Amino acid sequence: MNIRFTHIFGGVVAATLFAALPFAAFADAPSMPGHGHGRGHAYGLIGKEVVANEDTTSTESEFHNFLGSFHGLSKYFAPQHAVFNDDRDDATTTLPTTNLTITNVTVNEISSTTARISWFSNLSGNTEVWLGTTTPVSSSNTPTLDIGNNTFYHTATLTGLTASTTYYLVVGTKASVNGSMATSSGITFTTSPTPVLAPVIHSIFGPTSVVAGQSNTWTINVSDANAGNLTYLVTWGDTTGTTTLVSVSTPPAAQTVTFSHIYANPGTYTTTFLIRDAAGLTASSSINIIATSTATTTSS
Fold first, then answer.
1. How many Å apart are CA 209 and CA 227, to the nearest integer?
2. CATH for 102-190?
3. N or C end of the chain, less CB within 10 A?
4. Phi/psi-derived region of residue 164, left when phi > 0, alpha when psi is between -120 and 50, beta in every other case
């Protein structure tokens, strides 16, 4: 008789071959109820099988004695079914199925608009999330997320959340092996406030060489994620001091502003553009401008 065990445990596939082991070796093991007899026997271990084949006819009770001898291993395996077949009669016995459970539910990587949820299940199945801003959240409704995967480790990322908001959720898994369903208790988390970001200067367009006494313009492109009032301060680097402009931005919080200035005397000037938002955060950029007495020409 050859007996083959095949099972999956901890992500490792293990196979063990026992040769020529008579059923009598397990005569002292506790018997399991059943009927019939046959030549081929199968016992489900986490969706896999234990197969016993022998050259001579054995009774089913002997095979149950054989299975009973592995009673001490039952905590590691999820029995699914046992099938007894021979060329005279067929019989199928369904054994108790392991209860589906969910553990280690965590919510992390929380930002102002996203959050990541993860958990484990003892049987592989899909990944479902019910989300709301009021409690309790009912798992009888359509899930907010339903990922049709088949896994023991479940993870889902929620997007499009509102900043500084408390959310309530329930997670669930439907086992692929038997269709049983398990859900978690209610879980609460709060998204982060909207981050306060400084304005950004994207570009400055304008001449870096000018003629003293002539007016020139410079255009600055700015954005501000907070979409508040922006104050522009331009220090021209000469005796004229600073030009100040206050403007109001609206979403998408992008602005293009043009400034004009005359450098009265020749020289090299460092011009600084500084932008301050309503939160007091700033951004600045400087360019060097050369003012000459006459226009610069290039000879060929």
1. 34
2. 2.60.40.10
3. C
4. left
